[in-house]
From TrEMBL:
Residues of the full protein shown: 6 to 530 of 695
Cleaved signal peptide residues: none
Protein name: DNA helicase RecQ
Domain Helicase C-terminal stretches: 222-366
Keywords on record: ATP-binding, DNA damage, DNA recombination, DNA repair, DNA-binding, Helicase, Hydrolase, Isomerase, Metal-binding, Nucleotide-binding, Zinc
GO cellular component: bacterial nucleoid; cytoplasm; replisome
GO biological process: DNA recombination; DNA repair; DNA replication; SOS response
The organism's place on the tree of life at top rank: Bacteria
Entry annotated with the keyword Signal: no
Catalyzed reactions: Couples ATP hydrolysis with the unwinding of duplex DNA by translocating in the 3'-5' direction
Top enzyme class: isomerase
Species assigned in the record: Pacificitalea manganoxidans
GO molecular function: 3'-5' DNA helicase activity; ATP binding; DNA binding; four-way junction helicase activity; hydrolase activity; metal ion binding
Amino acid sequence: TASPAPGTETDPSRLLRQIFGFDGFRPGQEEIVEAVTAGRNTLAIMPTGGGKSLCFQLPALCREGVTVVISPLIALMRDQVRGLREAGVAAGALTSGNTDEETAEVFAALDAGALKLLYMAPERLAAAGAVNMLRRIGVSLIAVDEAHCVSQWGHDFRPDYLRIGELRRDLNVPLAAFTATADEETRAEIVTRLFDGEQPQSFLRGFDRPNIHLAFTAKDQPRRQILDFAAARKGRSGIVYCGTRAKTEGLARALEEAGHSAAAYHGGMEPDQRRMVEARFQSEDGLIVVATVAFGMGVDKPDIRWVAHADLPKSIEAYYQEIGRAGRDGAPAETLTLYGPDDIRLRRSQIDESLAPPERRMADHGRLNALLGLAEALGCRRQKLLGYFGEDSTPCGYCDHCDRPPETFDGTQAVRMALSAILRTGEYFGSGHLIDILLGTETDKVRARGHEALPTFGVGQEWDRRQWQAIFRQMMGLDLVRPDRERHGALRMTDSARPVLRDEEKVTLRRDTLTRSRDRRPAVK
Ligand code: ADP
Ligand code: ZN
């Protein structure tokens, strides 16, 4: 076998970023990718939308030779092939939907040894010479999507799936089977028919990590909040994730001054230094590592007792992966994620300024929105988190909201006042100025623009400045408004705010973040 060409990337976490554009693995993916890449027979059961395809696509890139992907869904195969090609991966499909040209192209690529992934409809396995062809091209892995189709008693039975077991025996290569729906009987049937009854490594675990306590808090005095959280867990190993490298060093110092043992860790450090911190973290009890996302991919410490986010992560996937480093031993672990309007702005502009194609940027905004929705959630955090990954559940009893349900109020009126201030000033200002208008504060900027004459001027005195900041933050979290990066954070209304403005929809807001501050600026009437 040929060794990978120089510069060929085979590190899964880096490929995840470079090829697929994801910040982290989704629940379960990492373990499956590891097992499949290592060439073990695997059976993975993941909910729809959980991200199965990555679990064979990524190993296919890490392994030598061709990965054959068998799927009954032609449209889906074509989509995946297109996506992979756009990302620069050599992939092709042999399905009944192909034109002759496409088929010829696939065969040419196979003959040239230039294909990494070959998608095939199961019917193709029945075609004369198919198995010989597969024998010839150096298949090193078979991936079977919708593996439950092999079950003769199921609704989706595909007779051609019965050929797959034979193909595996014939080629003598590992097989990875995936499905979203497999009761115990179907599972047993998959094992019998695809693996000749030999138990594959199975991944049936749901996404839930019930021993991890989930909590979010709006940023108030972020450094103080992190120090308090750490102080209550003194002597226990933890990770604090920060948005920037500079912040990791400052916070590590502050933690040391507070009597903890702490170390900074980020991508700008020398590899030697980084390895030293990793080694200390593995061996020392109670070390706190203050890190950027660069920390954790290779860390396998089962007894990390807590994870805190000093800044909002990039996406709900990144969040899940980062908190998921805590409590691998199954013992209780705690997490705290801080978030504020600056984080939201920062994450949005990072997405907007990335060089990714528009669809990917839109998906990134969606994944950020999902995280913001979780941060601003009114009910059980876990239920919401698992729901996002496709799993139904009941309130967990082990998150901040289950501990103490947030007090809510009908915020429709406040939101409409804010939207009206935004619209009447041409969607041209940030929250500071808008709050001045709502409070009726006659600043120079207000006077210069003549905004004291607006009907909205001073209508919002029921709330103080801090409360308005919380309202605006929640509005951003609910994606009712978004900062416009062309206009330095000027807030624009989104389409989802229209029904609120028209009084067709109500907005429920959290009250607990709205405590009136003592040092409120006097409002001018
Ligand atoms: P299914 O499990 O239903 O086959 P897919 O593989 O189609 O799911 O993935 C569902 C969606 O999740 C896709 O839009 C995919 O881009 C996205 N996705 C998969 N893995 C990740 C990840 N690690 N981070 C972010 N998004 C992901
Ligand atoms: Zn809960």
